[in-house]
Records
---
Amino acid sequence: MFNSVIVITDRTVLDNQLQETISGFEHKEGVVVGISREGSNESKSTQLADALERGAKIIITTIQTFPFVLDAIQKRTSLKENKYAIIADEAHSSQSGATAKKLKEVLNSDLVNENDEDLSAEDVLNASIQAKFGNKSLSFFAFTATPKAKTLEIFGVLPNPNQAPSKENKPQPFHLYTMKQAIEEGFILDVLKGYTTYKLFYKLEHSDLNKDYEVESKRAKIKIAKWMNIHPFNIAQKTEIIIEHFRTHIAHLLDNQAKAMVVTSSRQSAVRYKIAFDKYIKANDLSNLQAMVAFSGKVNDDSEGSDKEYTESNLNPNLKGRDMRKAFDTNEYQVMLVANKFQTGFDQPKLCAMYVDKKLGGVDCVQTLSRLNRTYAGKEHTFILDFVNELDEIKEAFEPYYKTSELEDVTNPNIVYDVQMKLEGNGIFTPVDIDNYASAFFNPKGTQALMSSALKPSIDRYKGAYKEAVIKIKELKEALHIAKNNKDIKGTQNLELDLKEANEKKNALDLFKKDMISFTRLYEFLSQIVDYEDAELEKLWAFSKGLIPNIRTYDEKEEVVDISLIKLTHYKLHKQRQEDIKLEGNGVLFPITDAGSAVAKDPEKEFLSKVVEKMNALFQGDFTEDDVIGYLNTITTKVMENEKVVLQVKNNTKEQAMLGGFSDAINDAVIDSLDAHQSMATQVLSEDRVRIGLANMVYDLIIKGMRA
């Protein structure tokens, strides 16, 4: 059937595991060829070309190798008559982007012209379009427990292959072994039993209001949240809970071989957890417990008083160069602290517990928690303690994969033209710019200098417009500051409107770059399942890939939010509940619907102290910001259902609107939500301060909704 079977994966860890597993099936030398830099003087691309040329039966490699092998293969041999089975293990986004396009080009000998001198830019352009569609020499087999909508659209089988994909003819898995069936048959464990969540309650304050200043509220909230997440006191409290839970409930399992994983939100968080773990272990004389930390690169952190550089090596001194997977499998280590690395694609059946301190969602959530589902002798239960996520969020992430993975609809292929039109309407590039770049890009003799020259007019237009916008914003800010100091009310109002307009122009330029990225990703995905046969789209794709790295927004770090004067004044980490999350399997995967649809807006500005106030609860009691915001949204939605009140808000000043039916509408909404939010509702109905504060916040949300 096939000359070679090529197994590809997008993660090095999984690549090593695959090589070990498949090599274990077939011991005959030369049948299984692993493409790896280890133990070889040749590049991975050269190794792959050699393996294909000599007809190796099974080739195992990462997909990242493929974009670099086209030249090597073209120079070494013609693969025209060959057929290949491509097995994509853990088929995720890496198989649906530019790397997959290159993979098909690598193995498509029709792209190789026997006489290079006769190969024109137009020939390569047309061949590039054809390479993405209907290549009969390749057969793809994709395996995944958590397909994305894109994965199903690319690899799924149509119920009626003679009709185009549609809502009535949605791609489906060729074969399905469900999570539900695997759990029932004992092949994997149910990791959602006894899921335990914690709630963090805290209060912050600005320690010097004389040094208060305006900031972009969204950016400030994000920075405060990150600061709080890695606050030494916060990390220390969670570390104590984790270690004591592990010692009490986990350590004795599997004849004292049980392992645990702590999922952290960032590399810096992982470093601070490791420091906190080592301190707690030493202070409590827990010599039989050792934690390993896994992250990539280097991290600078000052949590111990002076700025230090941390790496896996200096934080894991006992590893001494050993492979982390193998060392963790020994009795020497019990806990692994991870920051992305090993969070997915890591197979350790002794894992019995996971401690989650990171926001999880969608595929990432399912893959992360599923590290626990491997069976092992004596392993009957798993334990998850989650400091961040809600039970409903975890349930929502798992639902699409419990019984079957089903698309809600298919992606409308015309969406790529919508983004194309939006890009062309920005005035940054012209059709001539695209044609000039395509002539160089698709020409076998085209040079980097020619491509750079073709991009220069567009780069200059973008930089010029961006510089003009930044200068204008700076001038307006200075003028506005003077007007406020002079108490010039009318001048302040006019300048605020001008500044709003200038910010929107700058944000439109930021959005242009994001739209170009959206277009390239969307086209790379859709062109694998839709035969566009559109040279203009192909040229715009190539042009966008060239332009994106050259249009940097040079003032991205202009506004630095200084939160050094913010202090943590109250802290409580409370065990919320333990519950079996029961799945029904009624979730669906949604197609792409809104790529490139965002519009530029003026970022909201608030004083930093006000942001801090909104980060704290409006109400007395153990309520998080999420609790209050959820309640606020509930009340606002109910008030907006009163068309008469909304009309009053729209056509009157705030003072006039508040005198109308607004107050009654608030009371009605609060009473309607009494059962679901009894404690907060009681405070609204009994305290003027809370009632007035809630009314003002609801009014502001309604006004923002009208302006959006």
---
Amino acid sequence: MIARRPHPLLSALSWLLLALLLGLAGGCASLPEPGPRPVSVARAPGEGMLGRLAAAHAAAAAEVSATEPLSGLRLLPNGVHALDARLALVQRAEHSLDVQYYLIQRDDSGLQFLRALRDAAARGVRVRLLVDDLYTAGEQALFAGLAAHPNVSLRLYNPLPARQGGLTTRLLLSLHERERINHRMHNKLLVADGAFAIAGGRNIGDEYFMRSRSANFIDMDVLATGPVVAELAAGFDRYWNSERAWPIQALMAADAAGDDTPPSPEALRAAFDEQVRQLPPPAQVTLLDALGRGSLAAELAQGRLTLHHAPVRVLVDAPDKQLETPAESALDATLQAMLGAREEVLIASPYFVPGQRGLAMLRQARDHGIRIRVLTNSIAATDEPIVYWGYSRYRTAMLELGVTIHELSPELVQRSGTLGVFGGSAARLHAKVATIDRRWVALGSLNMDPRSARLNTELGLLIDSPALAWEVEQLMQPRALAGAFRLALAPAGTQLQWHASAGGEERLLTDEPGAGWLTRLKLGLMSLLISEDML
């Protein structure tokens, strides 16, 4: 499975070499004129089924607290239930869908999702879809075909100037705008009828919903209703109406460069319909998720939902984050909340590169008696080995500060069965979630790394809910951590040890599991070309 993070665009020597190649290739690509960007805003909840259900939960929340606005919340820890929830909201929407994703893949999950958006538009629902442009290579016609349907508007965020070829070609021919294109929109959000929203770590693709044969992600989203939805919708509007969101029609002229007759809207529409016509219907969800809850589609059909009520703070970066110098990014706000802990912070992050600033914060937490526990990927689990290499340089220092570190093991996860049924596929952590003092939950798209801090835009939620924090704790420990190695330092030394528990037996490893000498050599050489602030 290819990496799904923005490429850590190369520095120094690699940049010079690529610049020479670019010159030999014959010049620099450029974007066309953007054309008109009609301004539009989110719609308030209507009188439809989702609006009525949201109103009922608002009344229930008012009974819990008459003074503090509370939102209704539900974790979505299992992939099949997370896809079911998205499709259920799209299928139940009656007047608006606002959808924002870093990545939508051309596979069964991605095409089923796009087909559901088309079907909603055919019912008269206004659909606004915003997708980051980085991984749209070869998919512009697919997205343009959806946008050719009535009631659908589609924009690409921060498009690369090179519109032709695969990802590597487009990056090479766009390196004259390296600073700009290294800024990506990593947000993940769906808002249905202004009444319900889903936010979290999942993109749209088979591996995010436990449907890939090769590798699947352990991830986390939250379903929300109440005041938080209006804030999320307002955040979407900021991106939709920003100068970095380009209507796809404005880019099609560049996409069709060299063609005498670009495809007509009718041809694009017909091609899209043909691609999604023979897709199998999504599988009906009959099993309970890891928290003992069933299908959202089934609950919506019955007109009832099981939700927690809690206050929520929305953390959303500015669309022009890299150009601005914001007082506080989404990651900064999350870290400040963690520093406010009194006892304990539990962090799950697939890409964890603390840097010197992070080490200083961990030292500050230790000095205040705060316990820090981290769950991240092992080298065998990660889909980003070079980012893992950046993290690995800080493990000894973190352990010396008293941080508890667990690394997800694909082999142990498959044996434990507590984080999902992976079959023959590899298990990888992709969830970005934390608990603070078993009261607060921080959840969203942001990783604990320099890229989320400075380069990507991110979306996060800070939820004051002991009930949700307890659920996250149950998912992450102690049974779930039977699928992970616990790291330790050997007595009287700095050598790392990996402790594993499987089948009631304890194992101690002194060589890094899954990292042979060739892997270490390759990563060491790559690390010389990529600066840490790009990871």
